[in-house]
Amino acid sequence: MSEKLTLETIHTLTARRGRPFRLPGGRAFAAWLILFAMLAPFMWMVIMAFRPAMEAFDLTLWFTPTLDAFRSLWQGNFLHSFGNSLLVSTLSTGLSLIIGVPAAWVLTRWQFPGRRHVALWILVTRMAPPIAFTIPFYLAWRWLGLQDTVIGLAIVYLTFNLAIVIWLMQTFFAAVPPALEEAAWLDGCSIWRTFWTITLPLVAPGLAATAILCFIFSWNDFFYALILTRTQAVTAPVAIVNFLQYEGWEWSKIAASGTLVMLPVVAFTLLVRRYLVHGLTAGGLKD
Q1: Fewest beta carbons less than 10 Å away: which of 2, 51, 167, 203?
Q2: Considering the entire predicted model, what is its pTM?
């Protein structure tokens, strides 16, 4: 009975494939309620950013919006830190993809002694706590003159983003039939041309999903930036801490800077959301 029910369910799902599911009224209301609860802290932060500083914790919805908090950020050093975050995240994401995507392809397609051990040790670099690498990085970067530099911080982020790229992209490359690449080689296509013109376009959704994950992990990092920067390469998460002063916490500036910090991630996610959904669900269903 259970097998028959399962097959009927599968046929029903197959027949509905490509069409959106409709939730009953009660469940739809619950879904909207959960979504509102998830977004409420962000909405509160955005509203607080536009409130006058003296009314930061006022719960009334009627107030006169002001841009004073954003003007104070513009006149201070926060935009410099914001630019550092943008530069470091973009640079580390780009380097991670340039190095990690071909490495994932090689680890997926080619057999060589110790291949599984290489993949495992790459993953260990991401699973280890940040403090395990902080002191070696601090001493090495101080000796190399990379301390408090954008390049130095981007290389640090590269180390843990590389593990994400390799492990995620291996899954997407494994889903591409090897026969496509073998056919290209038989037609005289070189290995790297096959990779760039045939394999890589097929894993574009996975590439977009991996890129946004790397960008978000780099953008949100606080620990490495706090230890390895001082003044020149300070990122936005570290700069926000400066608003927590002994004399009092500047909540309006914290809310305004938090709103600005959210914007690149939200914009990047909306830009690649179509690829992100395809990438994160790849492999879940097979034709």
Answers
A1: 2
A2: 0.78
